[in-house]
């Protein structure tokens, strides 16, 4: 492994009390932890754009234009933003349901070098990049290279 590639690694940790019947390839690379996930695990919280004006504004300014440029109208079933769960309350998560498949991603965080300020341009670019990668791996858009071509509303 080169020094550059060492910076890109992922890890699968599975939490639970019941043994899982998983393929050997998944078991080989996964770490199994008994019990619930830790309380400080980064994940979406309960406050969404339905009740929070900052999230609602960010959704209109950055998220909707990107999603509209990548998904067809008949594919999108649900879309919302959420603040992170404690202790990561300033993280911004997107949840998207398209043709029964779920995309959930951390869009912005004070822990990011350029994050934490809800900048629509940065959030839109990050979402476009991650959503494009996800779409080509879904059952409904398998192998399609959909390029995000969006224009953000002027402030």
Domain module tally: 2
Compressed to H and E, one letter per element, the order equals HEHEEHEEEH
Distance between the termini: 45 Å
| Alpha plus pi helix count | 4
Q: Let me know the largest β-sheet.
A: 4 strands, antiparallel
What is the tally of beta strands?
6
The overall average pLDDT, rounded, is 85
Largest beta sheet: what is the strand line-up? 3-4-5-6
Which spans have pLDDT < 50 for at least 5 consecutive residues? Answer: none
| Rg value | 17 Å
Question: How much of the polypeptide forms β-strand, as a percent range?
Answer: 25-35%
The level of helicity is: 25-40%
Q: What does this 3D model show about the protein?
A:
A hairpin with a 7-residue loop joins strand 4 (76-84) and strand 5 (92-98). The model has no long low-confidence stretch (mean pLDDT 85). The chain is built from four helices and six strands. It has two domains: 3-34, no CATH class; 44-135, no CATH class. It has 155 residues and is an alpha+beta fold.
Short description:
The chain has 155 residues and is of the alpha+beta class. Helix content is 28%, strand content 25%.
Chain-wise SSE layout:
Elements: H1 3-6, E1 12-16, H2 24-29, E2 30-34, E3 44-48, H3 53-70, E4 76-84, E5 92-98, E6 101-108, H4 120-135
Parallel strand pairs: 1-2
Antiparallel strand pairs: 3-4, 4-5, 5-6
Key words describing this protein structure:
about 160 residues; alpha+beta; 2 domains; four-stranded antiparallel beta sheet; 4 helices; 6 strands; about 25% strand
């Amino acid at each position: 492994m080169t020094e550059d590639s060492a910076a890109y690694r992922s890890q699968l940790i599975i939490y639970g009390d019941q043994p899982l019947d998983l393929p050997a390839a998944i078991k080989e690379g996964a770490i199994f932890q008994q019990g619930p996930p830790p309380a400080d695990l980064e994940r979406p919280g309960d406050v969404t754009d339905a009740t929070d004006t900052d999230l609602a504004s960010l959704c209109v300014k950055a998220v909707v234009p990107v999603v509209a440029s990548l998904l067809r109208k008949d594919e999108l079933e649900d879309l919302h933003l959420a603040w992170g769960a404690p202790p990561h309350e300033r993280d911004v998560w997107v949840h998207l349901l398209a043709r029964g498949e779920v995309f959930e991603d951390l869009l912005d965080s004070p822990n990011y070098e350029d994050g934490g300020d809800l900048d629509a341009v940065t959030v839109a670019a990050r979402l476009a990049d991650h959503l494009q990668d996800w779409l080509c791996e879904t059952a409904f858009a398998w192998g399609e290279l959909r390029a995000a071509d969006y224009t953000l509303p002027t402030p």
